[in-house]
Write a structure and sequence with these properties.
Number of helices of chain C: 4
Number of helices of chain B: 12
Radius of gyration of chain C: 17 Å
Oligomer: heterotrimer
CATH class of chain C: Alpha Beta
Helix content of chain B: 40-55%
Structural class of chain C: alpha+beta
Radius of gyration of chain B: 21 Å
Number of domains of chain C: 1
Order of helices and strands of chain B: EHEHEHEHEHEHEEHEHEEHEEHEHEHE
Number of strands of chain C: 6
CATH topology of chain C: Alpha-Beta Plaits
CATH topology of the largest domain in chain B: Rossmann fold
Largest interface: A-B, 46 and 42 residues
Structural class of chain B: alpha/beta
CATH architecture of the largest domain in chain B: 3-Layer(aba) Sandwich
CATH class of the largest domain in chain B: Alpha Beta
Strand content of chain B: 15-25%
Strand order of the largest sheet of chain C: 3-6
Shape of chain B: globular
Number of domains of chain B: 2
Largest sheet of chain B: 7 strands, mixed
CATH architecture of chain C: 2-Layer Sandwich
Order of helices and strands of chain C: HEEEHEEHEH
Strand order of the largest sheet of chain B: 3-2-4-5-7-6-13
Chains: A alpha/beta (289), B alpha/beta (399), C alpha+beta (103)
Shape of chain C: elongated
Chain lengths: 289, 399, 103
């Protein structure tokens, strides 16, 4: 339950928006000694327009390509000014993280600036009206893939396993206490942290607005989304998928998968299983960066 | 007096940055600017200079991180050229609109294509309307001095506008000359520690910066930027005066040589002005009434000051180091506006020279003056630029 | 509601004007007007666990003396609370039924 009201309640996000909930839970965890950055995206609705803002903390709207670079500058400048107790929070979607912002993110991570990068993943360019991104699931229809996406999503979590992150985690809007625990841990690290949060979007994924949390829970239960964290060279799996067959229910709950064929369904399930198996094997190692 | 050192333009800029007590530098290597960032990062790495250097993965990230740092209230610097400046284009506008006093050195190199490593002004001219003050230095000494002057100007609360200090790639960046480097104490009398005067990112002050601007206020914010930019003219004059008092080197937004009674005046920018000056001296010795007006501050453009230099001239020959494709070079367009605004009747002729690193020789300048005078006495009008030193047989005409 | 965020933004009003695109006011759209269904908590069935508040995207639910309270100025009527309530103690009637009663 939110203790602090650091984010305005009167914001024009869509009904049932997971991004707003993630932002709210993030501020509730980090408190007022936080500076946030958002790129032009749905999260820019929190940053506001004209002379109005939703954040009760300082914020900058960056350009889409380089939020992590903006954060690098803020983080280093805070050090110069001796403001060591401030958390720098990047708050970007999948477009700003997986696609156009990936280079900048990789640079910021490699250089080791103290900052927490949150990616709320709604699996498409939702602020421009739902165009596919590299995070869009195979088979999902978007405005640029009306008959369903032909390619599998980029697995950014696995890509980032080999970068010097001080802390890396996945989380889901369906489990806010878990997200808050992970964010708290990240904010206490002295280096770059990445938290990738699943954010089912009622408008883009086409399910009723009341189902945001349920869809997120089903994603985790079915293994379509994996919950894990990486710290000190070791992966910890937070929740074991209950049954991969539930992916059928997960797909059926969203109209964006309305055109998915049996063949694609099988591929989606097989890929989810493969990801989990890989993760299990990786979790046996303790030699990651 | 400071310490006389043998420095090239790049090293001079690095010294200017250090003497300006810049706290954070983020830059990416690119020819011919690389020695600036190598020098600065080595000085920081070997603890001869106390500052933070962010080794960014691109020029876009270089300026992005400076926007973050400058917004957080520290003095910042970057340097770039050509492709790098083009990649930064998105964020140069953001930096200026956010009213951040960032200073960037641009070591001019032709923008592609064709691919080139060598000097012309096509890179910095892409930034002409991005809202940055643009100073063109002609020598290593000026480069150092202009960096210090740039910080004082950009940070002035009447201005709050970033500055590009431009030097010509190789012609100035790699030219070694004796440079008077102010001591830390001397420089400290001119550039003090940075005190931000506008909003900064501070957890106690929840400002939201650079957010979406509606049509209801966008025009007013642009006009505010324009006022800041225009105020830089006065502030630059004040700082040039103060600088001359402290260091004995006098600069102006337009620097003239032998223009008072000149019939023909050459208008130019950057390193070629030394050659033009030399030719002017030789022609004067031969009794020819010629002069040169060098524009040192391209933005804000010194219309009045340039008009003052051109008021007695019959012919004005403008040398643009950029093609102005389909139109005229940007400097020529400004000169036309200047003549019109001051109601001066001189003939103005557009010359394009020195593209992609081609040398501008004494002969090139002499040709420019001859052509301008010949066209002037015929009362001719040019409807397109004159490409000087063009190898006509190498030019390909479409079928 | 909106206490802390408003208080924090309020202090900016006392400071000198900022030059550039800087926001100093709080966005405060009364998004309750969007609602076409209204979540209503049945007091007797509510166990005050706070899960509804944890998952309300708008932060429109708070725990008060009398139990969980929904701020209808901001509640957009997404219905997440009605689904997430472990006791199913939140009804979700059409907004029009309230208007008929003259609200």
């Amino acid at each position: 339950m939110p203790e602090l009201d650091l984010l305005s309640k009167g914001l024009t996000t869509c009904q049932g928006c997971p991004m707003e909930l993630i932002g709210r839970a993030a501020l509730d965890t980090l408190g007022p000694r936080t500076i946030t950055m958002t790129p032009p995206s749905c999260s820019a609705i929190l940053t506001g327009s004209g002379d109005e803002t939703g954040w009760g903390i300082p914020s900058v709207q960056t350009v889409l390509m380089s939020l992590p670079a903006f954060a690098s500058g803020v983080s280093e400048a805070l050090k110069i000014r001796g403001m060591d107790d401030v958390t720098v929070m990047g708050f970007a979607g999948d477009g700003g993280t997986f696609d156009i912002g990936l280079q900048s993110l990789s640079g910021a991570i490699e250089r080791g600036h103290k900052a927490v990068f949150i990616c709320y993943n709604n699996e498409a360019y939702m602020n421009t009206g739902n165009q596919r991104s590299s995070a869009t699931t195979l088979g999902a229809s978007t405005k640029t893939t009306p008959t369903g996406k032909k390619e599998s999503a980029k697995n950014i979590d696995f890509m980032l396993l080999h970068t010097p992150l001080a802390y890396q985690a996945t989380a889901s809007v369906g489990n806010i206490p878990d997200f808050k625990r992970k964010l708290k841990k990240a904010s206490e690290k002295d280096g770059p942290c990445f938290i990738h949060v699943l954010a089912p979007c009622p408008s883009g994924w086409k399910f009723p607005t009341s189902q945001t949390i349920e869809v997120a829970k089903l994603a985790v239960k079915s293994g379509a989304w994996l919950q894990f964290e990486r710290e000190n060279g070791k992966i910890t799996i937070n929740q074991k998928p209950a049954d991969f067959a539930l992916i059928n229910d997960y797909l059926d709950a969203q109209k964006r998968f309305g055109r998915v064929t049996a063949e694609i369904r099988e591929r989606i399930i097989a890929e989810a299983k493969g990801r989990y198996e890989t993760l299990c094997r990786l979790a046996e190692l303790d030699c990651l960066v | 007096m400071g310490v006389i050192k043998a420095l090239d333009g790049n090293a001079a800029i690095a010294h200017g940055v250090m003497r300006s007590k810049v706290q954070l530098v983020a830059a990416y290597p690119i020819t011919p600017q690389t020695p600036i960032v190598e020098t600065i990062s080595s000085l920081i790495d070997t603890k001869q200079y106390d500052a933070t250097y962010i080794t960014v993965e691109s020029e876009h990230s270089a300026l992005s991180s400076l926007i973050g740092a400058s917004s957080t209230g520290v003095r910042t610097f970057t340097a770039s050229a050509s492709h790098g400046l083009a990649l930064m284009h998105e964020v140069t506008g953001t930096a200026a609109a956010s009213r951040l006093p960032i200073v960037m050195a641009v070591v001019s190199r032709a923008i592609p294509g064709p691919m080139s490593l060598w000097c012309d002004h096509s890179d910095i001219m892409t930034q002409r309307d991005q809202g940055w003050i643009q100073l063109f230095a002609a020598s290593p000494q000026e480069a150092l001095d202009f960096v210090m002057i740039a910080y004082r100007t950009s940070e002035d609360e009447r201005v709050l506008t970033p500055t590009m200090v431009d030097i010509d790639g190789f012609f100035c960046s790699h030219l070694t000359e004796p440079v008077d480097v102010p001591t830390e104490e001397e420089a400290g009398r001119f550039v003090k520690d940075f005190v931000p005067v506008n909003a900064t990112l501070d957890p106690d002050l929840p400002y939201a910066m650079n957010n979406l601007t509606s049509p209801a206020i966008f025009t007013e914010l642009k006009r505010s930027q324009d006022i800041g930019m225009r105020s830089a003219a006065k502030v630059l004059d004040e700082r040039f005066e103060e600088f001359a008092g402290l260091f004995g080197r006098r600069y102006g937004r337009v620097m003239c040589h032998e223009t008072e009674d000149a019939d023909t005046v050459v208008v130019c920018m950057g390193s070629m002005s030394g050659t033009v000056k030399h030719v002017v001296n030789e022609l004067r010795a031969a009794g020819r009434k010629v002069g040169v007006a060098r524009v040192a501050a391209f933005r804000p453009f010194p219309y009045k000051e340039l008009a003052e230099a051109l008021k007695g001239a019959k012919n004005v020959a403008v040398i643009d180091r950029v093609s102005g494709m389909g139109s005229f070079g940007p400097l020529y367009e400004e000169v036309l506006s200047c003549l019109r605004l001051a109601k001066l009747g001189a003939n103005a002729y557009p010359f394009v020279a020195g593209l992609g690193g081609r040398d501008i020789w004494e002969q090139t300048v002499e040709d420019v003056i001859e052509r301008a005078e010949a066209l002037g006495s015929a009362g001719a009008v040019c409807d397109e630029p004159i490409w000087i030193d063009l190898k006509e047989d190498e030019v390909r005409y479409n079928a | 509601m909106q206490k802390l965020v408003q208080q924090r933004m309020k202090m900016l009003e006392t400071l000198p004007t900022i030059i550039g695109p800087v926001s100093v006011k709080i966005s405060d759209v009364h998004t309750g007007a969007w609602r076409y269904r209204r979540p209503v908590i049945r007091r007797d069935d509510c166990i005050r666990c706070g899960i509804c508040a944890t998952y309300c995207p708008c932060g429109a639910i708070e725990k008060a003396e009398e139990g969980m309270v929904i701020d209808y100025t901001y509640c957009k009527g997404c219905g997440i609370c009605t689904v997430e309530c472990p006791k199913k103690a939140i009804d979700f009637p059409e907004e029009s039924t309230f208007r008929k009663e003259g609200e």
